[in-house]
């Protein structure tokens, strides 16, 4: 697709994401959906501009608009289900402050499915918009959802706590909600980077370990029970236990998958192509089944397989609450799990250990497809008879006979190639990672040189 990636439309301001595009997307949504749209934004410097452009397009095509303004993406999804026929979020999520984007939601709070995104793109590029007559143009009304959304999460989790929590909001839109939710639960909250600033002065907005490693020392210094970090629009969540140890993304998914399968006495868990074997082990042990889907499509997987839970790195979906990624439900349920079953370090110790490593190779967007194809060819030759199966969901995942796996895929949101490797030992992981990373980097450089000739 020309506009949509793995998480809506996203890219550098003025290069891909412009007010002109936002206007057309708004008109396309109104043409495609009609009715009432709920619109919100994150705290980026360009988000007010783009929000107003989208609203103009929605009005031009005859939609009524409810403006929720600055709220996190999960709250926008919930508000759309409660109040609208469609939802639009202006955000670039965890991307750098130079970027922005547009996410589109259905009236039930799910992100647009792949087929819907294709249809919306068709309308944008065809220019066949519905244009409302002067007497059909609707109004824009403010919509205050924060208190109601917090109430909905509290009702769903139904738990009070006395835990001491360190919260890092990344200067993102989660800062307007998370500390209040935690305090309403009874938690003692210490906040850092919890004022909204579109320059992200505190840290990079993506909650990767290298961006938030300092929280481990803060946990120990402050004596808190856990630390929670979010990204720019607060759909992603990362956590540290009470000892200051980072809990890796697959372990968080496995914890919740185990919880839901045990609670339901079985069921299907949907996860993405870039997650590891610990999830399969705990789910199968509890009597459930794991299905992998392309990255960015947990809602598609829930719909197709009737999943009781879905998760990809940092992003968890709780279908009993709503079929969207929701870090606030995640943090509230995690606190409940800690209170009922012991400290987070104990919960983590019950999850099997595998050795995973992931890194990005910078790559121009126009070369990503060719690089991945050439890397596949080279890796297929290098790995040879070790290969058990090659999965072709979101790039190429090489399943090896010793239980290891190698994934090479193009990022759907940034000019990068993702390289992910897991092995039964650190030595095996590192050997495979060196092979995969060097292979991808070499192909990037070869194609860049060819492009310059």
UniProtKB/TrEMBL annotation:
Enzyme Commission number(s) of this protein: 5.4.2.7
Keywords noted in UniProt: Isomerase, Magnesium, Metal-binding, Phosphoprotein
GO molecular function, one term: phosphopentomutase activity
InterPro entries recorded: A-D-PHexomutase_a/b/a-I (IPR005844), A-D-PHexomutase_a/b/a-I/II/III (IPR016055), A-D-PHexomutase_a/b/a-II (IPR005845), A-D-PHexomutase_a/b/a-III (IPR005846), A-D-PHexomutase_C (IPR005843), A-D-PHexomutase_C_sf (IPR036900), A-D-PHexomutase_CS (IPR016066), Alpha-D-phosphohexomutase_SF (IPR005841)
Cofactor(s) the record lists: Mg(2+)
The UniProt record lists the keyword NAD: no
Superkingdom per UniProt: Archaea
Domain annotation Alpha-D-phosphohexomutase alpha/beta/alpha: ranges: 2-129, 148-244, 248-351
Pfam families (alphabetical): PGM_PMM_I, PGM_PMM_II, PGM_PMM_III, PGM_PMM_IV
The protein's enzyme class: isomerase
Protein name: Phosphopentomutase (DeoB)
Taxonomic source organism: Thermococcus gammatolerans (strain DSM 15229 / JCM 11827 / EJ3)
Biological classification of the source: Archaea, Methanobacteriati, Methanobacteriota, Thermococci, Thermococcales
């Amino acid at each position: 697709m020309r506009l949509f990636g793995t998480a809506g439309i996203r890219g550098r301001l003025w290069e891909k994401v412009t007010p002109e595009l936002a206007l057309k997307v708004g008109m396309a949504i109104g043409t495609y959906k009609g009715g009432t749209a709920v619109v919100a934004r994150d705290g980026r410097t360009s988000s007010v501009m783009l929000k107003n452009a989208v609203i103009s397009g929605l009005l031009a095509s005859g939609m009524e608009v409810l403006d929720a303004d600055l709220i996190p993406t999960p709250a926008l999804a919930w508000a759309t289900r409660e109040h609208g026929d469609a939802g639009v979020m202006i955000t670039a999520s965890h991307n750098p402050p130079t970027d922005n984007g547009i996410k589109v939601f259905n009236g039930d709070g799910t992100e647009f499915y792949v087929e819907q995104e294709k249809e919306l793109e068709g309308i944008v590029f065809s220019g066949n918009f519905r244009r409302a007559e002067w007497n059909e143009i609707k109004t824009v009304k403010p919509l205050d959802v924060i208190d109601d959304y917090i109430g909905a999460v509290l009702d769903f989790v139904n738990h009070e706590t006395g835990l001491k929590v360190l919260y890092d909001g990344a200067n993102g839109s989660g800062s307007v909600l998370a500390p209040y939710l935690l305090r309403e639960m009874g938690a003692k909250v210490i906040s850092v980077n919890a004022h909204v600033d579109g320059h992200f002065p505190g840290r990079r907005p993506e909650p990767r370990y290298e961006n938030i490693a300092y929280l481990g020392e803060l946990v120990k210094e402050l004596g808190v029970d856990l630390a929670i970090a979010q990204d720019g629009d607060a759909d992603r969540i990362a956590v540290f236990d009470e000892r200051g140890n980072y809990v890796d993304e697959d372990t968080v998914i496995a914890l919740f998958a185990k919880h839901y399968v045990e609670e339901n006495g079985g069921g299907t868990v949907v996860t993405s192509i870039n997650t590891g074997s610990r999830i399969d082990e705990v789910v199968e042990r509890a009597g459930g089944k794991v299905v992998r889907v392309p990255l960015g499509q947990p809602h598609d997987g829930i719909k197709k397989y009737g999943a009781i839970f879905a998760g990809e790195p940092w992003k968890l979906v709780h279908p009993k609450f709503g079929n969207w990624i929701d870090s606030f439900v995640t943090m509230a349920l995690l606190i409940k799990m800690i209170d009922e079953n012991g400290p987070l370090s104990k919960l983590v110790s019950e999850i099997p250990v595998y050795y995973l490593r992931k890194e990005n190779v910078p790559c121009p967007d126009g070369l990503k497809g060719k690089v991945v194809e050439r890397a596949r060819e080279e890796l297929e030759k290098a790995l040879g008879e070790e290969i058990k199966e090659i999965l072709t969901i979101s790039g190429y995942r090489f399943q090896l006979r010793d239980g290891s796996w190698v994934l090479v895929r193009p990022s759907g949101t940034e000019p990068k190639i993702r390289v992910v490797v897991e092995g039964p030992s650190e030595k095996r992981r590192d050997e495979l990672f060196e092979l995969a990373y060097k292979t991808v980097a070499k192909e990037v450089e070869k194609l860049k040189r060819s492009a310059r000739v």
